[in-house]
Amino acid sequence: MSYGGVGRAVGVTARTVGFALGSCPDDVPWHRVVGSDGYLRIAKRSPVHFDVQKARLAEEGVLVDERGFVPADVLALSD
Considering its fold, how many domains does the chain have in total? Predict the structure, then answer.
């Protein structure tokens, strides 16, 4: 799901969702939230967290391409 999709569901902005996910406990599935275009936004802020997000998504069967994008069909299912 995208940051905007989560935001619409709970009545806040995508930016607010990003801030909240940046400080959530590790057991919250933050790795499932990506940009509306499928890009792993964390890549620009933290290469370490990018690798974590990519690995967690892979464990769930979601492959991320070399540029940091998840497939469009995955986004269509979640947003």
Answer: 1
